[in-house]
Amino acid sequence: MAVKYSSYSMVKRLLALSVLIAFFAVIVIARLLYLQVINGYSYVEKGLTEWLRDLPLIATRGKITDRNGVVLASSYTTYDVYVRPADVEDASAVSNLLANKLGLDYNEIFEKITTQKLSEIKIATDIEKSDVQEILKDFQNGIFFTTDTERNYTYDSMLCQILGFVSSDNSGQSGLEAFYNTYLQGIDGVSLVESDLKGTTLEDSVTYYENAINGLNLKLTIDFKIQNEVEQILAEAMQTTGAKSISCLITNPQTGEILSVCTLPSYNLNDVPRDDIETLNSLSRATTIVDTFEPGSTFKPIVAAIALEEGLTSKHNYYYCSGFRIINGVRIRCSRRSGHGSQTLEQGLMNSCNCVFMDLIAQIGLEKFYDYLEKFGFTEPYGIDFPGEVTAVLMPKPSVTAPDLARMGFGQSIAVSALEMVVATGAVINNGYVLEPHFIKEITTETGKVVYTRNKTIKNKVISDRTSKTMREMMFSVVDKGGGKNAKVDGYPIIGGKTGTAQKYENGAIADGKYVATFLGFAPYDNPEYLVYIVVDEPYGAYYGGVVAAPIASSVFEQIFKIENIAEDENDNPDEKTIELPTFIGMTLTEAASTLAGLGLQYLVQGDGDYVTSQIAAPGTMVAENDIVLLIFD
Fold first, then answer.
1. Is position 297 annotated as part of the catalytic site?
2. Residue 82's CB: how many other CB atoms inside 10 A?
3. What are the backbone dihedrals phi and psi of residue 317, each rounded to the nearest 5 degrees, phi first?
């Protein structure tokens, strides 16, 4: 019995041992599966960090070009120099070589190599390829190179607020560089060299390269030729007007493409004032997109279009202007103190008569007016491919009084961006289509393969073809024989438009003597392809849009016609009567107005004095019939 018991006990013990061994085997196998299969990649990475030393291979940032391929922004390759102390055989020779070839201090290099406990030590950055080639002629072990890129803007300040700039690590910080950063920056590569824990390169080591993937290229809707002319015209206008700033925005109202945009003063993209944040923030603002202002009378075509679309008026409807309207006890003046008398809607637009548009918006009514503002896109971003787009600043409907609504009729008590004015006016003249504005035309690879093409995007149709045609005709009359005459280009009777003048506000009150002068025009008026908006902020002296902004627009249109080889019309005003302008200085307003009417000339008044103290144009100037004379009363 004892033997049987002993045999049975032995069997039990062997079975228990087997189970125990199997249990531990399962644990070991499970652990191995976890380490090698489930979590193996992370441990391989940890191992790599122990025996591979990495240096970056920077991707080349994509180019930015205009619509015709003119390069506006590009990147060029530079090199950084490193030393791996563990691989250096002769520290003195390495230090001497780098000091001589790079113009650096020998002692500083030698101290870094011999005292710093680092795997790699950066000696120099942004050196040229020729410097690398010189070092390679007398190469010493322990010296390594990596590539880097630097951004270059071909035309310095051109389009500076739109292109934007990049950080020190080539990441977009503002403008299109920031908005399209994901596409432009590419993916960096890396150079890996086998080494021990001390950083010494292993014998017979292999260098592994993960090549960089270069960024994509942007082709913009911008037209370099037009942009170049606009920048020169605005620079000259800054001198002649003494303005705080001047902006120009040009689009194709049939497509939503932005052809040119410029704001002065500007800054050099190749020398960004990063040490002066206040100046940088001021000069880098794309004010036409991210800022709002009271548009003044350039807003009147939108009000007229709404009234026409609603059947409330026609271009031949008559209105009477006494020089003011009294609304709920508030006296609101017209631009001409003596009034325009009886006039049609078309004449009211030509004369920029505030009274006509106070009557129109009263007919439209607050609810309908705000409905149309939404349809025109003033209440929501259009979705332009640019950071920081703003929307109009509108009073809450319950807060709008009758006088407030009246002022909105001629572009006051409402603040909009230049971009909104261009898009909304584009709808007024392009048969009613609100189009999404955009800068991008194509995105391509470095080999030229097109990976994205931007098409026209219609946001809404807000007015009929018939209303739009009527508006084009009336706005043509504004330039042909109304207040926008200074925007005309001799030989080209194809421009329509509207002038604007608005007071500025500071701390909620009217800023004394500060105005924004504007002109919004298009050509050809029967089938518009170019829509030009000029905004002159705080001009010195004369401040009316027809006097200050319209001539700038004329220069811009003239250059566009030359660039596009648009032929002149030889029959444009062949028998136009010219008049030698007399002096009005010392006259009362009544005397001057009577004389001007007899000569077939129009006038604007600036100041509140009793007698004319100066005039624009000057006495003796040859002017055409229906031209505008500015009478200044100081």
1. yes
2. 18
3. -65, 140
How far is residue 332's CA from residue 464's CA, in Å, rounded to a whole number?
32
| Cα 292 from chain centroid (whole Å) | 14
Whether residue 251 sits in one domain with residue 174: no
**Are 191 and 231 contained in the same domain?**
no
Range of the domain at 395: 224-574
Q: Are residues 76 and 27 in the same domain?
A: no
Q: Verify that 443 and 532 share a domain, yes or no.
A: yes
Contact partners, residue 502, CB within 8 Å, separation at least 6: 293, 294, 295, 296, 297, 411, 412, 515, 516, 518
CB-CB contact of 495 with 487 (8 Å): yes
Place of tokens 């026409």: 308
Distance CA 59, CA 68 (A): 25
Q: Yes or no: say if 362 and 405 are a contact pair by the CB < 8 Å rule.
A: yes
Of 195, 217, 239, which closes a domain?
217
Q: Per-residue pLDDT tens for 125-152?
A: 888 878 888 888 888 888 888 777 789 9
The answer on 330 and 448 residing in a single domain is yes
Is residue 352 predicted with pLDDT exceeding 50?
yes
Cα separation, 421 vs 518, in Å, equals 11
Considering the chain, what percentage of its residues have pLDDT values greater than 70? 89
If one counts the domains in the chain, the total is 4
Residues 471, 494 contacting (CB under 8 angstroms): no
User: Has residue 206 got a pLDDT over 80?
Assistant: no
Sign of the Cα torsion 262, 265, 271, 272 reads negative
Distance CA 519, CA 545 (A): 6
Closest CA to 394 of 370, 377, 372: 370
How far from each other are the two terminal CA atoms of the chain, in whole angstroms? 136
CATH of the domain at 617: 3.30.10.20
The token duo for 510 is: 């009217």
- Per-residue model confidence (pLDDT) at position 50: 45
**Cα–Cα distance list, 473 to 316, 346, 347, 470 (Å):** 12, 9, 12, 5
Between CA 425 and CA 376 the distance in angstroms is 9
Same domain (yes/no): 254, 118: no
In a domain, 46, yes or no: no
Exactly one of 297, 352, 477, 555 is catalytic; name it: 297
Cα–Cα separations (whole angstroms), residue 361 to 130, 308, 346, 348, 405: 70, 11, 16, 14, 7
The domain spanning residue 496 has which CATH number?
3.40.710.10
Q: Is residue 48 part of a domain?
A: no
